């Protein structure tokens, strides 16, 4: 516990210590005379005196430090005041109005030029004035010139809103035509510096320059109007003439004394002589009413005729200030040209009509020629297929009978030649059908594996002969297409790939392409140059390669392109010379196919016919084909009844009183019933019998008719394997019945 109070002054603390020392000395002298501790008390008193002296010295040093601090503080205050006076003097020397607001938007200081032009609020500019109060007082100052559409409160609200921006600059108009530019800038501690600059002289110079430019612009407009090839006149909102060019008087034949500043529009219209006639668009009275109508005026355009030949076009339009202008153009030459053009058009229309009639006749002749061509191609193909079919059957019969290897090779070459001729005829028929207008497709849901699997077996032999690897990536997708034409497209692309590929592989697969299945045929052939990629789809166009010279007709890709176009299946091609090619066909997806049941293919050779004792009625009006079929069937130990027409067949069966086991009927039998008609007649007499319709007509309609009647369709030239399958099935049915 301290003997003195530290909060006392140094003088008071020194006084207390002296009193304590005196009391201790008196106690030592008088209070301890009889005590044995006198000496000890003396020692304590001496110690206390020493401590008092030390404390006194410390207090004196503290007083010295305090005096030094007070002196330094006084010096700092003097320097601060000097700096403040210097800052105030510096601000006062600024030629602009200056004010500083702190971070709380309270006025700290300003110079005498700040708000000097607002003399009615100078008394309110004191430190501590809030920024909002400063704006409110300025907005109510009588020296502030507010725009007509603003009130004091609205101006103050906008001013305070702009104060929220970091940098602000705008102009304020004062009374007596003076202007201030006000700018605000933020300080580092969040305060605001406001500067007011008198820009009256700049504004006056700008206005003077603007007026000078207006005068110059007016002179330029006047010069421009005088150089226009049109007449132009301008009227104010009261219909008084305020501007025009010389061309106006020339076009309207108005004397110069009529065209004067302030001339009335209605009076000018009335002074137009009788030679001026309003011909198109508006009448004279209608134009007068348009000019006198209240705002807004809609643009008008009309024509007048002055004299016997001059035609003037007048365009009128309202202006923002309520006036209007007229533009007058001489269109005499244009109207004369239009008249001549109209006369020429009449002549041309007559010629076009005559030419159209000629073209219609030519088109009709072309359509008849095209129809005649289609009929000729169909008939010629039928006539060509008849002897071709007979020749193939004769060759096949000889091949079955001879065992000589050299003869077998010759017969094989002959059959290959006949097959090539058959392919040419088939291709020509396909192109003729695809180019015609009467082609109808059987669009239905098709499983892609039904297209791929037969082609795999068929094309594997061709690929194996050339030492190529043929791969199919099977697909379970279902697509919407014509099954027969889609098969023909893929078949032609595969045959083309195998033909032009000397080594490597051919790959067939399917990719999903959005809502389509993209069938792709890849090969490792020589590739196709970019300049040849369009030409390869032309008829009989083959690239100059060894493969194309030795085989191929040049029609496969032409058929593919036409079939894809008619079916709406986009066809694509990628190829790189030296690497190979890829043909792509996009077909709409219909779903996924169910798993197909694998069946063992039946042999196409007529095994066991010799033991069946089969009797076949053959009705064929071509003698050569009839004889060839008969020779082949008899080599298979099948008994044949021949007839050349339906009438002859019915008569033959009536005479022999024999019921055949199967029917082979040509569809086209000349005059009289067709093969299907003969089948109906025989069915009425003998009931349903196994029947095959033979025809070179491969139209979908005939195939559909045969399918509806459960008849086998055998296209010409006859394929001996398919014929053998039909007869074998008929023999099996006969055995089951027996």
UniProtKB/TrEMBL annotation:
Domain Histidine kinase: residue ranges: 379-591
Protein name according to UniProt: histidine kinase
Record-listed 4-aspartylphosphate modification sites: 666
Species classification: Bacteria, Pseudomonadati, Pseudomonadota, Alphaproteobacteria, Rhodobacterales
Protein species of origin: Ponticoccus alexandrii
Keywords: Coiled coil, Kinase, Phosphoprotein, Transferase
Entry superkingdom: Bacteria
Reactions accelerated catalytically: ATP + protein L-histidine = ADP + protein N-phospho-L-histidine
EC number of this enzyme: 2.7.13.3
Enzyme class per UniProt: transferase
Boundaries of every Response regulatory domain copy: 615-731
Coiled coil: 59-93
Keyword Transmembrane appears in the UniProt entry: no
């Amino acid at each position: 516990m301290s003997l003195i109070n530290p909060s006392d002054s140094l003088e008071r603390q020194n006084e207390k210590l002296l009193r304590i020392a005196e009391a201790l000395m008196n106690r030592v002298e008088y209070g301890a005379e009889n005590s044995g501790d006198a000496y000890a008390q003396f020692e304590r008193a001496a110690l206390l005196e020493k401590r008092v002296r030390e404390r006194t010295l410390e207090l004196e040093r503290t007083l010295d430090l305090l005096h030094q601090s007070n002196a330094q503080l006084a010096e700092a205050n003097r320097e601060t005041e000097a700096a403040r006076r210097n800052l105030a003097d510096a601000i006062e020397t600024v030629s602009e109005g200056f004010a500083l607001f702190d971070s709380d938007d309270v006025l700290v200081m300003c110079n005498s030029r700040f708000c000097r032009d607002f003399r009615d609020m100078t008394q309110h500019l004191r430190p501590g004035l809030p920024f909002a109060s400063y704006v409110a007082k300025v907005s109510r100052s009588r020296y502030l010139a507010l725009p007509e559409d603003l009130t004091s409160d609205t101006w103050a609200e906008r001013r305070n809103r702009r104060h929220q921006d970091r940098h602000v600059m705008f102009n304020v108009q004062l009374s007596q035509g003076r202007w201030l530019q006000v700018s605000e800038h933020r300080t580092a501690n969040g305060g605001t510096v406001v500067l007011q600059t008198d820009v009256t002289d700049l504004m006056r110079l700008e206005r003077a320059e603007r007026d000078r430019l207006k005068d110059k612009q007016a002179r330029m407009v006047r010069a421009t109007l005088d150089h226009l090839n049109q007449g132009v006149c301008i009227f104010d909102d009261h219909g008084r003439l305020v501007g025009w060019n010389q061309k106006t008087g020339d076009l309207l034949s108005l004397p110069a004394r009529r065209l004067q500043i302030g001339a009335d529009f209605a009076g000018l219209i009335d002074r137009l002589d009788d030679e001026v006639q309003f011909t198109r668009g508006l009448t004279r009275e209608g134009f007068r009413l348009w000019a006198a109508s209240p705002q807004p005026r809609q643009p008008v355009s009309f024509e007048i005729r002055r004299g016997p030949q001059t035609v003037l076009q007048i365009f009128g339009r309202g202006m923002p200030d309520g006036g209007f202008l007229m533009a007058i153009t001489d269109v005499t030459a244009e109207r004369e040209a239009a008249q001549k053009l109209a006369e020429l058009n009449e002549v041309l229309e007559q010629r076009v009509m005559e030419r159209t009639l000629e073209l219609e006749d030519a088109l009709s002749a072309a359509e008849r020629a095209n129809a005649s061509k289609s009929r000729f191609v169909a008939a010629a193909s039928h006539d060509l297929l008849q002897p071709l079919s007979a020749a193939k059957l004769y060759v096949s019969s000889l091949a079955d009978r001879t065992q000589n290897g050299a003869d077998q090779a010759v017969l094989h070459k002959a059959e290959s030649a006949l097959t090539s001729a058959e392919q040419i005829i088939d291709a020509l028929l396909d192109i003729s059908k695809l180019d015609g207008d009467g082609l109808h497709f059987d669009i239905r849901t098709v499983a892609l594996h039904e297209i791929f699997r037969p082609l795999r077996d068929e094309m594997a032999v061709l690929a194996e002969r050339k030492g190529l690897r043929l791969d199919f990536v099977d697909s379970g997708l279902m697509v919407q297409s014509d099954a027969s034409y889609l098969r023909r497209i893929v078949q032609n692309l595969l045959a083309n790939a195998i033909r032009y590929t000397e080594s490597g592989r051919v790959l067939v697969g399917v990719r999903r392409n959005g809502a389509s299945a993209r069938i792709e045929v890849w090969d490792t052939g020589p590739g196709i140059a970019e300049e040849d990629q369009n030409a390869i789809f032309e008829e009989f166009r083959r690239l100059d390669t060894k493969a194309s010279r030795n085989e191929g007709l040049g029609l496969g890709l032409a058929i593919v392109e036409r079939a894809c176009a008619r079916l709406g299946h986009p066809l694509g091609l990628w190829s790189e010379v030296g690497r190979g090619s890829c043909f792509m066909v996009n077909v709409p997806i219909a779903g996924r196919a169910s798993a197909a049941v694998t069946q063992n293919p039946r042999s196409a050779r007529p095994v066991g016919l010799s033991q069946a004792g089969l009797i076949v009625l053959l009705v064929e009006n071509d003698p050569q084909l009839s004889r060839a079929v008969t020779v082949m069937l008899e080599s298979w130990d099948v008994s044949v009844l021949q007839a050349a027409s339906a009438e002859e067949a019915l008569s033959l069966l009536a005479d022999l009183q024999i019921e055949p086991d199967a029917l082979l009927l040509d569809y086209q039998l000349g005059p009289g019933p067709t093969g299907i008609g003969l089948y109906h007649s025989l069915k009425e007499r003998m009931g349903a019998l196994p029947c095959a319709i033979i025809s070179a007509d491969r139209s979908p309609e005939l195939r559909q008719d045969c399918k509806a009647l459960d008849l086998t369709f055998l296209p010409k030239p006859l394929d001996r394997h398919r014929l053998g399958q039909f007869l074998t099935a008929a023999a099996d049915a006969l055995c089951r019945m027996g």
